[in-house]
Amino acid sequence: MANHKSALKRHKQSLKKAARNRAARTRAKNAVKAVRLAVLAKDPEKAAAAFANATSILDKTAGKGVIHWKNAARKISRLAKAVKTIEQA
After folding, report:
1. Which region, left, alpha or beta, applies to residue 43 given φ > 0 means left and ψ of -120 to 50 means alpha?
2. pLDDT, tens digit, for every residue of 15-66?
3. End-to-end CA distance of the chain, in Å?
4. CB 25 within 8 A of CB 66
5. CA–CA separation, 59 and 57 (whole Å)
6. 58 and 75 in contact (C-beta within 8 Å)?
7. CA atoms in the 13 A half-sphere facing the CB of 73
């Protein structure tokens, strides 16, 4: 454990930031999971709504630096492709 006052403060800040980042990652994973479940259920309306929500969440998560922006772009691209396949079918 840190002994200096400033080091104690930095430690507390890092714990808060880690918790915030963990929550953001979990939120993003759940949003992606919701889209995938809607695609598996072959429900185009639900999939489109979940996709819009997931896109927003992934963009925000990437914008805050919690995940890499290319990681978010790749996930959005793959989800869009999946949603499009059930809309056409």
Report:
1. beta
2. 999 999 999 999 999 999 999 999 999 999 999 999 999 999 999 999 999 9
3. 58
4. yes
5. 5
6. yes
7. 4
